[in-house]
Amino acid sequence: MTIGKNLTVAIMDPPYESATTATALRIIDAALRQAQVVTVFAYEGAVSLTMKAQQPQANPVKGTTVEQEEHPTTKDWVAGLFALARQTGAKLDWINCGLCVDERGAGETIEGPRRGSPKDFFEAVKLSDGVIVIPTR
Amino acid sequence: MARFVFVESRDPYESADCRHFLDLIAGVRRRSHEVTLFLVQNAVLAAREGASTAGAYSDLAKAGVAVVADTFALRERAVDRLAAGVEPTGIDRLVNLALTPQTRVIWH
After folding, report:
1. For an interface test with A, which of B71, B74, B77, B95 has the most A Cβ atoms less than 10 Å from its Cβ?
2. Do A130 and B9 lie within an 8 Å CB cutoff?
3. What is the ipTM of this complex?
4. How far apart are CA A63 and CA A96, in angstroms?
5. Hey, how many other C-beta atoms are within 10 angstroms of the C-beta on A89?
6. pLDDT digit string, tens, across residues A68-91
7. What is the rounded distance in angstroms from the CA atom of residue B5 to the CA atom of residue B106?
8. Where are the beta strands (DSSP E) in chain B?
9. Which residue among B9, B92, B105 sits closest to A30, beta carbon to beta carbon?
10. Most-buried pick from A128, B1, B67, B68 (CB within 10 A)?
């Protein structure tokens, strides 16, 4: 196991549109379980992953309630990653691109992410042992 | 010699440019670099045993490319048999590869 290396992950896909979101979050999860230092740069639509106002929904077609449906939200998945980091002693630095946030009105986030800019991504890459950039299609 | 990790997330049934990605990988390998092809998401569909596209992955493996497929993606898609030379693996391997010195990760 590699301990304490710096991994930077850039993501761009908005929530609920692509399997890439789950893959990216699984990569981050795996890194945090190895007690790595993980910097996530959320760019473009990905800044909406951490929007606090996301709500799970019932399924009227199936007749299930919100509780029965257990509809997952990306804000809860990301909150889970922050909780995992606290548990494993890893560090998760989640940076939402400020310009992208403003464009989308996505400034109200769960606890944990911070506002930044592409310069933060550049600085993170310089300090990183590994970089994974996951582009949109 | 450098190390390259090519991550394929698309399958050739939806993206015609997957073929060019495989050409790129083969070309990099021919230059004697250490190469891994990591299949995630729908890309694992093309590496099923018996798929018309499976031979391309076996050829890469024969050429010395480590061809691996994400077990999570395989389970989601009920793929339990892979083309010769393609090995199932966990996503933590991608993290380890990305953190290996002198490694570049290229996502498609």
Report:
1. B95
2. no
3. 0.95
4. 36
5. 10
6. 999 899 999 999 999 999 999 999
7. 6
8. 3-8, 34-39, 66-70, 86-89, 103-107
9. B92
10. B67
